[in-house]
């Protein structure tokens, strides 16, 4: 079997999902190959001849090799201007590689002028004419050798930015290798299949869709009839670990799927009915120590929606052997200054915190289980411990108006010295969430694969008003503007810990 991670996503760390699947298949005696077509495809495009008509494009074209090397050197991350220039020029070079055909490629996104990843008819159209995809020459050059002796191709589709390329890849395999079985899974496919009105429009293109964790379904499809090991340590060994766009390996690891809190209103996890499935804490520690010794990562990226308190306490007591970061909930554990110091000594260099709002009423309406008093303590503790904070804020929820948004602004200003990075998002209503009907539905994103719906805000605080507030007021406050400028272009939180000063 060949497992493929398709273009286009940030190519700064290996894909965790296919590494986990490969380990499970190999552990049960099923031969498996891995292909990170996302990384390899982007590097292939960056090696092709390019026509440059302006000064920036000529510079970007000429500096491709040097800029790739720069992103693989830790010294670059200690010079924000050098880092930003390397990223900007590489992004420009990728855009030049796909300037024709109404396609826009960057280091973090893929867009088409006329085809949308939210419409199944457009994905089918991408499969019908795979030759029009800018990655087609890479597919047609590289895949034939890898497909020798392969009977099944599994593709992991996680992000909207991968969808059009994924279906072009499916179209290529279906057209030139019609006897191969094609299976499609991943986070985005899982979200599609959790829709209450889901009907598979891709039956003529793929032989099976897999929702949720894919280990057991894949084994069953491949004819495995024996017992199933619930957990296997991910296997990254066959991926090109030295080629990712980071200064050394960033090791992704999931200590569980779903969210252990799972009580927030408007949460996609709740809307899709996903359950929390943790890996045993002792197993997490064992995996991380084994992988750290074997692979010697520069940084560990914990992928959980929120790392559980049990895992945080375990890491504090038994450090994994490399710097690490991940999402964590604002709670009483982090309100303990001694515990935050322990986390820092264990290697924690950054925590991503979903604060969402600086207004208590908004937090209560969202079911966040957060008090601003505790949030203040947590931010201060992390600052004192030397742990960077990537703070996530969400504007435009039904419980918020301009008044509450300005309270969030004031809260961030009061704590600006403890907030290293900011992620500012405008609220999307999950299409099938419990709350959607209460606020009224109307078309939002055109397409039968959309996961969100527009809604009637009770305070007339619509997206245009929110966007105007963010651009004209929130981001213009000097204390906040300085934080916003810290955010790594294109790679955002995936490179933030590197820019925050790890060695």
* Estimated helix fraction: 40-55%
Judging from the principal axes of the Cα atoms, what is the shape? globular
Order of strands across the widest beta sheet? Answer: 8-11-12-13-14-15
**Assembly level:** single chain
* Secondary structure category: alpha/beta
Name the average pLDDT.
Answer: 93
Radius of gyration: 23 Å
Structural features, described:
Helix content is 42%, strand content 15%. The protein has 503 residues and is of the alpha/beta class. It folds into two domains: 2-221, no CATH class; 250-499, Aldolase class I (TIM Barrel, Alpha-Beta Barrel), CATH 3.20.20. Helix 4 (64-71) packs across helix 5, helix 6 (120-128) crosses helix 8 and helix 12 crosses helix 13. It is globular and about 60 Å long.
List the topology elements.
Layout: E1 2-5, H1 16-27, E2 33-36, H2 37-47, H3 55-62, H4 64-71, H5 80-97, E3 103-105, E4 110-112, H6 120-128, H7 136-146, E5 152-156, H8 160-176, E6 181-185, H9 187-194, E7 208-209, H10 215-221, E8 250-253, E9 256-257, H11 268-271, E10 277-278, H12 281-295, E11 299-302, H13 309-317, E12 324-328, H14 337-345, E13 348-356, H15 360-366, H16 372-385, E14 388-395, H17 402-414, E15 421-426, E16 429-430, H18 436-439, E17 441-442, E18 452-455, H19 463-474, H20 478-484, H21 493-499
Parallel strand pairs: 1-2, 1-5, 5-6, 6-7, 8-11, 11-12, 12-13, 13-14, 14-15
Antiparallel strand pairs: 3-4, 9-10, 16-18, 17-18
Helix pairs in contact: 3-5, 4-5, 6-8, 12-13, 13-14, 14-16
């Amino acid at each position: 079997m060949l497992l493929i991670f398709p273009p286009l996503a940030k190519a700064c760390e290996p894909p965790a999902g296919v590494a986990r699947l490969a380990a499970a298949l190999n552990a049960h005696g099923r031969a498996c190959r891995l292909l990170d077509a996302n990384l390899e495809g982007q590097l292939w495009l960056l090696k092709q001849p390019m026509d440059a008509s302006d000064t920036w494009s000529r510079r970007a074209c000429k500096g491709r090799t040097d800029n790739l090397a720069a992103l693989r050197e830790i010294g670059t991350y200690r010079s924000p201007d050098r880092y930003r220039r390397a990223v900007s020029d590489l992004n420009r070079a990728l855009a030049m590689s796909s300037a024709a055909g109404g396609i826009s490629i960057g280091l973090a996104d893929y867009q088409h002028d006329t085809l949308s990843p939210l419409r199944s008819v457009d994905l089918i159209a991408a499969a019908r004419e795979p030759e029009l995809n800018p990655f087609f020459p890479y597919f047609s050059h590289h895949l034939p050798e890898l497909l020798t002796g392969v009977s099944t191709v599994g593709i992991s589709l996680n992000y909207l930015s991968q969808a059009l390329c994924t279906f072009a890849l499916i179209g290529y395999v279906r057209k030139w290798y019609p006897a191969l079985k094609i299976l499609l899974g991943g986070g985005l496919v899982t979200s599609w299949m959790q829709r209450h009105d889901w009907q598979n429009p891709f039956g003529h293109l793929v032989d099976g869709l897999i929702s949720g964790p894919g280990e057991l379904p894949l084994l069953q499809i491949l004819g495995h009839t024996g017992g199933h090991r619930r957990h296997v340590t991910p296997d990254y060994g066959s991926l090109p670990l030295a080629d990712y766009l980071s200064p050394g390996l960033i090791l992704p690891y999931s200590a569980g799927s779903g969210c252990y809190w799972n009580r927030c209103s408007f949460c996609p996890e709740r809307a899709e009915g996903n359950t929390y499935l943790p890996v045993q804490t002792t197993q997490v520690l064992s995996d991380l120590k084994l992988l750290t010794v074997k692979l010697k990562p520069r940084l560990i990226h914990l992928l959980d929606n929120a790392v559980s308190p049990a895992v945080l306490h375990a890491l504090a007591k038994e450090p994994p052997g490399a710097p690490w970061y991940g999402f964590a909930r604002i709670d009483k554990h982090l309100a303990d200054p001694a515990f935050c110091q322990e986390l820092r000594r264990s290697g924690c260099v950054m925590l991503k915190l979903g604060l969402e709002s600086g207004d208590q009423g908004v937090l209560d309406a969202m079911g966040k289980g957060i008090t601003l008093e505790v949030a203040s303590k947590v931010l201060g503790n992390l600052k004192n411990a030397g742990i960077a904070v990537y703070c996530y804020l969400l504007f435009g929820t039904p419980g918020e108006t301009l008044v509450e948004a300005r309270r969030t602004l004031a809260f961030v200003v009061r704590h600006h010295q403890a907030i290293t990075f900011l992620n500012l998002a405008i609220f999307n209503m999950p299409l099938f969430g419990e709350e959607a009907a209460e606020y009224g539905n109307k078309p939002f994103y055109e397409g039968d694969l959309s996961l969100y719906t527009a809604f009637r805000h009770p305070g007339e605080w619509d997206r245009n008003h929110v966007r105007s507030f963010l651009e004209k007021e929130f981001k213009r406050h000097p204390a906040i503007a300085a934080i916003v400028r810290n955010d790594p272009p294109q790679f955002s939180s995936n490179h933030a810990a590197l820019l925050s000063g790890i060695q």
